[in-house]
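To: structure desk
From: M.T.
Subject: fold request, one chain
Message: Could you run this one when you get a chance? Sequence is below, nothing fancy, just the single chain.
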Amino acid sequence: MPHVIVRLWPGISEQQNTCRAEAISKDVMNILHYGEESVSVAMEEIKPNEWVEKVYRPEIKKNPDRLYKKPGYDENDL
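Reply: Done. Structure tokens follow.
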């Protein structure tokens, strides 16, 4: 049962988040061959000044072996 969490900076409307969640769900269903009932998508807004502490260090820097797509930045760029 895939559950996708998208962490992003604030500023996206509810309508945009809904559209993006639908698009992500469709891609997950097509790529992983799951039915719609199996896929969930969450959007979590993180303030830019909290990104390094809440996302970059614990999720990206601490877990490089789990990343299949690495960002083109590091914490010094933020």
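Reply (cont.): The chain has two helices and two strands. Let me know if you need anything else for the meeting.
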